[in-house]
Amino acid sequence: MMVPKLFSLLNIFALFYLFTVTFASTEEATALLKWKSTFQNQNNSLLASWKLSRNACKDWYGVVCFNGKVNRLNITNASIIGTLYDFPFSSLPFLEYVDLSMNQLFGTIPLEIVKLSNLVYLDLSSNQISGPIPPQIGSLAKLETLRIIDNYLNGSIPGEIGCLMSLNNLALGNNSLSGSIPRSLGNLGNLTYLSLRENHFSGSIPKEIGYLRSLTVLSLSTNFFSGPIPASLGNLTKLSILYLYTNHLSGPIPEEIGNLRSLTELGLSNNNLDGSIPGSLGNLNSLSGLFLFENRLSGPIPEEISNLRTLTMLELNSNTLNGSIPRSLGNLNNLSVLFLYENCLSGPIPEEIGNLRSLTMLDLSNNTLNGSIPTSMGNLINLSMLYFYKNRLSGSIPSEIGYLRSLNKLVLSSNFLNGSIPSSLGNLNNLTLLSLFENHLSGSIPKEIGYLSSLDVLDLGINFLNGSIPDSLGNLRNLQILFLNGNNLTEEIPSSICNLTLLKNLYLKRNNIKGKILQCLSNISGLYTLMMSQNSLSGEIPLSICNLTSLQILDLGRNNLKGEIPQCFGNMSDYLEVLDMHHNNLSGTLPTTFNTRSIIRSFNLRGNELEGEIPRSLANCKELQVLDLGDNHLNDTSPLWLGTLPKLQVLSLRSNKLHGPIKTSRIENMFPKLRILDLSYNAFTNNLPTSLFQHLKAMRTIDQTIEAPRYLGDGYYKDSITVATKGLELELVRILTVYTAIDLSSNKFEGYIPSIMGDLIALRVLNLSHNWLQGRIPPSLGDLSLVESLDLSVNQLVGKIPEQLASQITSLEVLNLSYNHLEGCIPQGPQFATFQKNSYEGNDGLRGFPISKGCGNDKVSETNNNACALVDQESNYEFLNDFWKAALMGYGSGLIIGLSIAYFMLSARTPNWLSWIVEELEHKITMRRRKKQRARQRHNRR
Length: 942
Known about the structure:
alpha/beta; 31-stranded mixed sheet; nine-stranded parallel sheet; 64 strands; disordered C terminus
């Protein structure tokens, strides 16, 4: 009887349970469906099961129930687009686990989240949630995991999070949180994982973090933390990962870090840490990764590092470590990555490095290591990257390098390596990069280099290699960059080079290569850069060059090329940025087909035999920065129409047959960027172009923002130009962007020097010599405070040297005022005391140092200055004599006026108020005499 009764009782309980389950699930299901109805994508396939007609606890995707109540909601990566504003917080009181990560939730976290009082796990990572973390979240007393990684949270971490005493996992990385870390986090004694990486936190790392003795992972990387690393972190003895990299931390690495015996990875890189690497780090027996790069650490690499036998990655690069590389590093048998580059390490590379047979990447570049490359490097058979560049290594390249069959990149450039290139390098079948640039290597290029079928980049530039370019290089079908520049290579370019159809950059400049430019170069359709300047190439430029429609830089300068420039080069300006064929024997006229699509930036044809006019189509080249057509036979008139080029910085038309006046242009914004203007050695006439000087904006302002030198050009091509400066004709192989110069010398300019030239305050070189300029030197030239070379020689200038030149110009190194008609005393000043007599010769009226004899001491100088004063007084006396004669003669009806002026001048002891009138009258009388002299000279020439 008891069994049937018991069975009936169980049925009653089962029915009651099913009834309550159905009722509870229906209420919660309705609330979840209401939230789902707010999603922007209603056709979500994963949530298609969310229907009232189905059992929410059994059939709904991501829903798990316990005792008929929704207990877990895991709909990660379900393509939800919506907010949490209508989430049924109050309808799900038994919810413990929520994972909504990897969706597209946006908006803020609602304050109602506190109603999930049983919540243990919350993950909202990888969404688009913004706004602050609500302080009310600190009420979720049962919360153990809080993950809101990779969102747009901002504001500070509320101190109330320190109330979540059950929390063991806190991950808020990759947001926009700011402010400091609240000290209350030190209360979270159960915390094992803390990640605040990639935010905008600032301030110091609180020492209270050191109270979290259960921590195994601490990541505060990529923030703006400053100040020292707290020594209290040494208490976190369970820590396995410590990431503090990419902050502004300073001070030394605490010795206490050596207490973290469980540490497997230590990342302190990219900070401002200084001092030496503590030897206590040698206690970290479990460490596999030590990352201290990009700090200010100094001193030697401690020997204790060699105790870290489990270490696989050691990166100490980009510091100021000094001393030698410890031989004991050869004990780190598990090491796969060793980066010591960009330090001050010296001494030889230890042979023991060759014991690191697990090594895959070795970079010792940018140090001052010397001695030879140890042959033991041939033992590193797993090595894929070997970088030794920018050191002081000498001796030959060991042939044992050819054993490294896994090697992918070999860079030994910028050392003092000598001898020949070992043919064993041809065994490195996996090599994609081989750079031996800038050494003292000699001999020929071994044909075995042509066996490196995987090679992308071959750089053998700036050595002493000789002989011919081997035919076998044509086998490098994957080659994209070939640098052979700066050697002694001879003979012709082998036609096999045309097989390199993937080649992007071909650099052969500065060799002794002979023969003609290959017609078949047009086969390399993707060629981007072709630099063959400074060789002995001859013959004509092949028309096939015009088929290289990807070409951006063409440099054929300083060869023996002849013939005419193909007219199709004008069409190439649609894609060509640099066209340089200076110093050849090219003849004929310039291309005339430059169109409005032109992107050419630099155009250099100086030093050829070109004739005809400057093509007006050059005005279409709006990207043009450098135009150099100097040292040709161009025959044209004023080039000011080039002023429409908005980016032009350098214009050189020197030594041609340009003629006529430089006419005033109506262009409103003419030459706005021009910094170098050279029209010397032509036949320009009439007055200097005052309207031009009014426009040169780049010469009227001094750029104070430039810190490091910058040059015109980019990559391996640097613009060059020939200029006359400081009495010498020089080729500037690189043009500083701050260099400014005007050279209008050796023309037939007449008239006065415009005073507006004093507004060109950025000028460093001004040359107006060998013209027919007259009048006085304008005092405004004293405003050219940066000018280093000023040449006004061989003109018809008169009057005194303005005092302003001596008192205001402090950078002047060369001054040439010779062969004019200047007079009076030479002004004294710091710079003027350095100029020699030849700066003033040919001016019979000048007096004072260094013209007059015996000016070597103060007494003589004083006597000399007195003598100058006497001369000036005599001149004034002669002038007054002339003036009185004029007054007495009457000059029309001016007798009474003349006598009145004379009376006032004689009665006033210091007639300063009339000095200007007197000086002007004196100047006019002198100029009349000069005009008469010039008229006689011109008459005699005829």
